[in-house]
Amino acid sequence: MTDETLTVRCACGWATTGVVADVVPATIDHGRRLHNMEATPEQVLAMAVQAEADEPASAPADVS
Ligand SMILES: [Zn+2]
């Protein structure tokens, strides 16, 4: 189980930040109500980026 905080930004300017369990249903609901689109959790996660952490990272991120 992950408590990773993600941000999803929509093309319309809407954005949501939170844990996966909050961001996925919020984004699906947004797409359904504002864009008449039915996104899947996989599509939402593909759009999601890691939210900026409040606490400074002690180790450099290994992004290779
Ligand atoms: Zn939107």
Describe this structure in words.
The chain has 64 residues and is of the alpha+beta class. It has one domain. Helix content is 34%, strand content 19%. It is built from 2 helices and 3 strands; from the N terminus they run ββααβ. It has a 3-stranded antiparallel β-sheet, covered by helices on one side. The chain is elongated and about 40 Å long. The two termini are 24 Å apart. The model has no long low-confidence stretch (mean pLDDT 88). The structure holds zinc ion. Zinc ion (ZN) binds at residues 10, 12, 14, 30, 34-35.
What's the helix and strand layout?
Elements: E1 5-9, E2 15-19, H1 20-34, H2 41-47, E3 49-50
Antiparallel strand pairs: 1-2, 1-3
This protein binds zinc ion.
Zinc ion is lined by residues 10, 12, 14, 30, 34-35.
Unreliably modeled segments: none
Number of strands: 3
Count of structural domains = 1
Strand-residue fraction? 15-25%
Encode the helix/strand succession as letters: EEHHE
C-alpha termini separation: 24 Å
Helix percent band: 25-40%
In round numbers, the mean pLDDT is: 88
Mind describing the biggest β-sheet? 3 strands, antiparallel
| Tally of contiguous helical segments | 2
Distinct small molecules bound, one entry per kind:
zinc ion
Strands ordered across the widest β-sheet: 2-1-3
Broad shape = elongated
Class per helix and strand makeup: alpha+beta
Rounded Rg: 13 Å
